[in-house]
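Action item from last week, closing it out:
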Amino acid sequence: MQETIPTVRPSPLKPLVFILLVAVIIITVRLLHLDQYLEKERLRQFVAGFGIWGPIIYLAIWTLAPPLLLPGLPITLAGGVLFGPFWGVVYVIFGSTAGATLALLVARYLARDWVASKLRGTRLATLDEKVARDGWEIVAFTRLVPIFPFFLVNYAFGLTRIPLSHYILATFFGMVPVTAAYVYFSANVLDLFQGKFSKDLLIGVLLLALVSLIPFAYKKIKARRGGSLDI
C-alpha cells in the first residue's frame, strides 16, 4: 500500500506578509529620516559607476548565496532596486539559476551524505520519488510555489536523479513569474520613501497579488488532467 505524503498547501498570505513588512520598513525609514539615502536614481547611478563590474559582482553574489545557505529574497529585491525592472529580472534569473545549479552540484557530488542527514525525516527526503514520477515538473512547481527555502530545496534536488539540463531549464523558466513580480515591485518601492505612490508601484503590487494565485491555478489544471504535484 502506497504511503500518502502530506500535502503542503501554498498560502496566499505570504505576499501580504511581505507587503506588510515593507510597510514597516518604510515607516521606520521615514521616522529616522533615512529616505535621502534611498533615492533609486542616485543608487542606480552609483552602481552604474562601477561599469560591468556592478552586474558581475551581483551575479557572483547570487551564484554563491544558495550554496552558502543565504536567503535569496533580499538579493532579489536588491536586484530590482539597483538595476531597475528589466535588467533586474535578467540578472536575478541568471544569477539565481546559477546559484541553484551550483547548490545542486555541491549536494550531488561533494556533500551528499551531509545533505541527506539534514533532510532525513522531512518531506524533502521523498523528493527523489516525486522526481521519478513527475520529472522536471516537480522542479518547476517548487519554483512557482516557494514552499521551502530556496537554498534548501536546491540541495534536496541534488539527491535526486533529475537530469542537470532538465533542472536548469525548469528552474530558469519556473522562476520567471515570481521573479518578475518581486523585481518589478522592488524596482519601484523606493518611491514610497519619497512619499510617492506611483503607477509602476501599483502595478508591482498587483503582480505580487497575481503570482500568489499561480500555485492554485497550476494545481487546479493538474487536477483536471488527473494528476497532482503534492509535496
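Closing note: The mean pLDDT is 81.
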